[in-house]
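Complex 232.
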Amino acid sequence: MTQHIIIDKIKVPFVNGQTIMQAANAANIYIPHLCHNPKLEPRSSCKICTIKLNNRYVSACDTPAVSKGVIENNTEELINNRLRLLQMLFVEGNHICPACERSGSCQLQAIAYYYKMLAPQFTHFYPKNKVDASHPDFIIDFNRCILCGLCVRASIKLDQKHVFALSGRGQNMQLIVNSKSGKLSDSDFSKDDQAAKICPVGAILPKHKGYEVPVGQRIYDQKLIDIVGDDQ
Ligand code: SF4
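Predicted structure with iron/sulfur cluster bound:
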């Protein structure tokens, strides 16, 4: 007998071992997320995918689907919680969209547009972190890192390397590069790494490709993220 969960009153089938996010994706139901990628183990750090399962808050990316579980996803309360998280992410980093090469292909911006967020609600931190332009092919702007950990996990699991790590806790957490100098050029990083392509925002950027796709013709300029997902 097929098992199912209910997401916002829609019956969604699942198989044992699937997470709520996997079952929702298979049924073309969008649960917003930033630190999740289907090729990698979930980490549940961004909390954007927080839903309610049987009236309790859980992360959709790492919570197994349970038979007849009743899930709220698109409620006013959950959307407001996500908006608050998005607004905090925007002011914590240097996410000045018109000045960012990822504008139109950035998932943070795309989810903000999906929820019709127009202006920041909190005071900007204006971080003054370093920019690492030492590598011939890639640049890292640490001011735009949202600490999702995707590059860390991709480097380990998909590239069999350990180029990136997250160091510290809470407000002191930061992305670091695994090399003696701390610079990308001295690490094992290569332009063909999966970790080079997985950043959901404009923190890890290829050089020599600025504005290759004109603004206005990029993936999320064309369609909302619930339609195209995060496959870029
Ligand atoms: Fe995530 Fe990008 Fe920061 Fe890596 S550099 S942790 S992929 S935001």
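The domain at 97-225 is CATH 3.30.70.20 (Alpha-Beta Plaits).
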